[in-house]
């Protein structure tokens, strides 16, 4: 029977919602699911992880070295804690993508990246070529499976569990060559782009940083997060943490409104799992309309004020 260890990503005392999605992927395999929390003081994070349905146990490693999530510090501890587990799963977030390959290397196995579907305990599907093709990968049955889970492909596991929390100690040698220097994070009062239920994104068609205010206004009316295409980021209209797509954020909101975005494949790969896609573009032949559920052909500077007025 599978024994799966899910790594708890957290920041500022909050468990990342991708952890509950990673637990859903683990549940698709079946077997025992434990969550591992590495922190200086893991109690609050452990309490949040214990609520996730399907979790059997929450294991905690308290160590001042775990004050900040540094992959090189976490990986040796995870590799030790993974003893006896058949699978070690992390979310395919920026942090998880940094951490899990190091864990895989320490365990002497290849990592399965961006796991989007479970075919069997050792057989998985993942996107390749910017989401244009799906490949089935098989891990040798005698190897531990180390994987990053594509959060956008999985629903959050429900809350309401009350799993046992168990403190463990791991005999891992921590590196001295890597240390935490600082964290620079953007601050916004708007919903978080990666977990928002509604997202309004602007592209090159918006034309300037100043014009982007029409995107922010619509987003605020909808209670939505704001995203952007890479062209908008490269042109300096918005910061790069707002980029949606292959080299930006992969998101799965219930509503995605693409404004002045042509619909290049590298952008579409970031919204493959979105619910309803609304496209506003003056070019009726723009590829975005091939994936849009609702398309409005016209000038965004005429359509957005009308839309806003209609929203009241
Ligand atoms: P354009 O393609 O220039 O489209 C602008 C659109 O705005 C046009 O369709 C136009 O009709 C419309 N428009 C103009 N004016 C108006 C108006 N007044 N009203 C209404 N519509 C108007 N792109 C990403 O987005 N995310 C990524 O992560 C990403 N990763 C990449 C990775 C690689 C390796 C490569 C090669 C490319 C990547 N790209 C990515 C870039 C991608 O190929 C496109 O260049 C980019 O998505 C185009 O952005 P855009 O749609 O805003 O601009």
Helices and strands, in order, run as EEEHEHEHEHEEEEEEEHEHEHEHEH
C-alpha end-to-end distance? 55 Å
- Low-confidence segments: none
Heteromolecules bound? flavin-adenine dinucleotide
Tell me the β content.
25-35%
DSSP helix count?
A: 9
Tally of strands: 17
**Class based on secondary structure composition and strand pairing:** alpha/beta
What topology, given as strand order, has the largest sheet? 7-11-6-1-4-5-12
Keywords: Electron transport, FAD, Flavoprotein, Transport
Domain Electron transfer flavoprotein alpha/beta-subunit N-terminal: 4-184
Protein name: Electron transfer flavoprotein subunit beta
InterPro entries: DHS-like_NAD/FAD-binding_dom (IPR029035), ETF_a/b_N (IPR014730), ETF_a/FixB (IPR001308), ETF_alpha_N (IPR033947), ETF_asu_C (IPR014731), ETF_asu_C_CS (IPR018206), Rossmann-like_a/b/a_fold (IPR014729)
